[in-house]
């Protein structure tokens, strides 16, 4: 009699806490049993994967993904839809994503935003998914809907301190934090000071400096550092946990660390673009630099990147997400080139849509670099995002009977030839990758989602099916909680 749907044997299993020679048995989409290597020798299974000693890790959880969004960050709209974005994700080992459901400033409800986003995702995803509500207008109605959001399985939202289309002022941020606190919702904050960005933009324009590379100076480090400190202050005042998204500067990381050392529930995210790119990537011939325009921008030098790596290693950063926010390069309608016209033949930095693709490259790029302990790699790319956003232990872990059987099985040492990444290897609907030419030493050999092999690099590549991915209702965060329970009291 067949006992299991799938067994994975001879793996070196890596979780966020340990590295062990274990075999894994899967039944009914869940991790059924984990035993010492060899322990499943006689098990009857429909299918067996021999990992040949390669690492076996929980599937990647990418908690910062933009798909099928309207123009929010400049003129363009995002290239990938739910089908192409989730396809790209699974081919790079990500089995769960949390995308944004964007509420515009002229809309006062969040529930309509949520149902519209459900409609975009339903039947289209290759991987499991949830949404963060992106609150562009914290109207009374929107705030009153937080409770329903929680009932609908949405336990996080994102707000912006910059961008005309999205920016909230400090009073609105406090409104959001207060209601989020009441409902057990985690607030993600894009922390950049919009006044500094506008002022610097004007200075650059006066000097007729429009090329893509001036995106960097238009978003100076101080804009991020000041806003990060302000966000921390507002969070402390309201005793509400926050996560600062896409942190790029060592000084902002130092503010975050200092707050964490004081015991505050401040969490932080960084992304591969701040580990691998610098301002040199924005400074390329012609319009090429536009490919790396994202906000915050890649910073000055390798030492900035080193500091961000160090922040991942020492726990300042809780998670490593892609911030996949794709715009086609050679697309004058909705892509990077929508900022090019007769007046600005090399584009104008302030009109270039902000964002880079990266959902497929996040895991292989970071693992290939081999700068994090393996357990730390699993922690920041899978387990912590699952814990932070209320998905653990269903996602991000290997808990018998409780975790979905989402796995990445990597190549054993010496089995995969290293290669230089090119965009045509990727599965997104974007005409470039900012990581073109990087040498990769690892790529998932197999990826398993709820017990199904959805990626087999050597036998057909993508095996998963559109529509297999399902919406996952999320719980409150198991990491982010206020310091003090009970109602927030007005300090008098
Ligand atoms: N912020 C994001 O989170 N993504 C893309 C653009 C931005 O500014
Ligand atoms: Zn942002
Ligand atoms: Zn983003």
TrEMBL record:
InterPro entries noted in UniProt: Amidohydro-rel (IPR006680), Hydantoinase/dihydroPyrase (IPR011778), Metal-dep_hydrolase_composite (IPR011059), Metal_Hydrolase (IPR032466), Metallo-dep_Hydrolases_sf (IPR050378)
Modification N6-carboxylysine, positions: 158
SUPFAM superfamilies: Composite domain of metallo-dependent hydrolases (SSF51338), Metallo-dependent hydrolases (SSF51556)
Domain Amidohydrolase-related intervals: 55-454
Pfam family, one: Amidohydro_1
PTM summary: Carbamylation allows a single lysine to coordinate two divalent metal cations.
A GO cellular component annotation in the UniProt record: cytoplasm
GO molecular function: hydrolase activity, acting on carbon-nitrogen (but not peptide) bonds
CDD domains xrefs: D-HYD
PANTHER family, A to Z: AMIDOHYDROLASE-RELATED DOMAIN-CONTAINING PROTEIN (PTHR11647:SF96), HYDRANTOINASE/DIHYDROPYRIMIDINASE FAMILY MEMBER (PTHR11647)
Assigned protein family: Belongs to the metallo-dependent hydrolases superfamily. Hydantoinase/dihydropyrimidinase family.
Protein name in the entry: D-hydantoinase
Species: Ophiobolus disseminans
The organism's taxonomic lineage, starting at the top: Eukaryota, Fungi, Dikarya, Ascomycota, Pezizomycotina
């Amino acid at each position: 009699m067949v006992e299991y749907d799938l067994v994975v044997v001879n793996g070196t299993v890596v979780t966020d806490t340990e590295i062990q020679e274990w075999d894994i048995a899967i039944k009914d989409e869940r991790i059924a049993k984990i035993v010492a290597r060899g322990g499943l020798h006689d098990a009857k299974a429909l299918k067996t994967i021999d990992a040949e000693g390669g690492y076996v890790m929980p599937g990647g959880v990418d908690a910062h993904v933009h798909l099928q969004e309207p123009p929010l960050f400049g003129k363009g709209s995002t290239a990938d839809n739910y089908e192409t974005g989730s396809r790209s994700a699974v081919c790079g080992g990500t089995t769960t994503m949390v995308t944004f459901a964007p509420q515009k400033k002229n809309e006062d409800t969040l529930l309509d935003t949520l149902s519209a986003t459900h409609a975009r995702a339903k039947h289209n995803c290759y991987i499991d998914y949830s949404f963060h509500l992106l609150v562009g207008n914290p109207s009374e109605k929107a705030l009153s809907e937080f409770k329903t959001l929680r009932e609908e399985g949405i336990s996080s939202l994102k707000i912006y301190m910059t961008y005309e289309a999205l920016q909230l002022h400090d009073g609105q941020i406090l409104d959001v934090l207060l209601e989020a606190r009441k409902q057990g919702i985690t607030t993600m904050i894009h922390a950049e000071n919009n006044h500094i960005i506008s002022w610097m933009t004007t200075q650059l324009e006066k000097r007729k400096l429009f090329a893509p590379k001036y995106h960097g100076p238009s978003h100076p480090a101080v804009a991020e550092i000041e806003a990060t400190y302000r966000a921390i202050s507002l969070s402390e005042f309201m005793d509400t946990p926050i996560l600062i998204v896409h942190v790029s500067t060592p000084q902002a990381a130092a503010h975050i660390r200092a707050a964490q050392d004081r015991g505050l529930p401040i969490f932080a995210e960084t992304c591969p673009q701040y580990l691998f790119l610098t301002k040199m990537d924005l400074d390329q011939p012609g319009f090429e630099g536009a490919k790396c325009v994202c906000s915050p921008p890649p910073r000055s030098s390798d030492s900035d990147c080193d500091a961000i790596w160090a922040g991942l290693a020492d726990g300042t950063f809780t998670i490593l997400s892609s911030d996949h926010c794709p715009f086609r390069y050679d697309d004058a309608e909705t892509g990077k080139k929508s900022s090019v016209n007769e007046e600005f033949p090399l584009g104008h930095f302030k009109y270039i849509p902000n964002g880079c693709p990266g959902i497929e490259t996040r895991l292989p790029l970071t693992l290939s670099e081999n700068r994090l302990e393996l357990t730390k790699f699993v922690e920041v790319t899978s387990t912590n995002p699952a814990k932070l956003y209320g998905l653990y232990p269903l996602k991000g872990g290997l808990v018998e009977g409780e975790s979905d059987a989402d796995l990445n099985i990597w190549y054993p040492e010496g089995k995969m030839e290293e290669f230089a990444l090119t965009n045509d290897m990727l599965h997104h609907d974007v005409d470039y990758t900012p990581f073109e030419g990087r040498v990769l030493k690892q790529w998932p050999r197999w990826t398993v989602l709820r017990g199904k092999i959805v990626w087999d690099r050597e036998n057909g590549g993508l095996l998963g099916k559109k529509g297999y991915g399902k919406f996952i209702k999320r719980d409150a965060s198991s990491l982010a909680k206020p310091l003090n329970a009970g109602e927030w009291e007005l300090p008098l």
